[in-house]
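Hi U.,

Before I forget, here's the chain from the pilot set. I'm dumping it here mostly so it's searchable later in email.
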Amino acid sequence: MLLLYSMLLTACSPRVATSFWRIGTPADSIRPGYAVLHEGQKVRHCYPITKWEDAADIDTYHQLHHHGVAVESKKMAYRIYFDRKQTIDVYCKRTPRLELMESHWYPNDSLLAAGYGDDILRVSGTVGVGSVKYWNGQKQVHIEPVNRRSQRIVNQNRNQATVEVAVSDWLVEGKTVQMAVQYTLRAGHRDMRCDVQLSQPVEGLCTGVQILPDGQYLAEELPGGILLASWGTDWPVNDTVKYAKQTVGLAVFIPREYAGSLVRDKRNNLCLLQSPNTNIHFYLTCCGATKENHPVATSAEEWFRYLRRWVKKLH
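Structure:
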């Protein structure tokens, strides 16, 4: 009986998860899911949320434990910054498992010693991997000015989770635009699908990958669309004493019907997103060559070969 119960429990256990924590005070201990979380020397009283909408001038970024909604499979985790950047950041797994309920994106020394993953990418002001940005004719810029911003967990089950970042009243190209961007991560996958919904078309909408130091990047036209990729090595955070450099592979694939012109600035390899209607979708993925025990690639050439196979599976 115990064996049967164990098998049923394993079969029902989640294979994807979300993480969205609002910072509070000890008075929030009455809230469901309240926890005391640690980030370095900081102790935070937090509680889980499923959505948050607020005016654009509210500092939502610093009122969340890991600065935005996150989603993970056993292979990879991603978070979206809840501010004007709306940038996707990457957390890589050394051992395939769900970790954010314990590490909350910031694993302590004990968890790192136990083989937990960690943030592997310093995105700064770049596009990161697959973030939705705007091309102003010379460089990528953030989504602003807007009236309100929101993030939410759209849905989550054992096999799939979708999170959303949205803006209302975005003033761009002489019009007012509503935009919602949803990212869906499936169990057993390191890649995500991105679905963009606009109230009206935006000519300068773009996505892509940041150009990594000491590496290579790729912009390739394939039968089904455009593949943008990057490979390189950089410090994952500003702390260069405690943390080691990470070699990372990033990629975005835009289907032909949504792929516009290729553009590039000093730090980003980009593609304009175009559509006859207001619905657009594309895909993104990542590899942590240094962090993963069994990475899908250990060189730029190997990463680019892997991506060409990946793209074929998307159709």
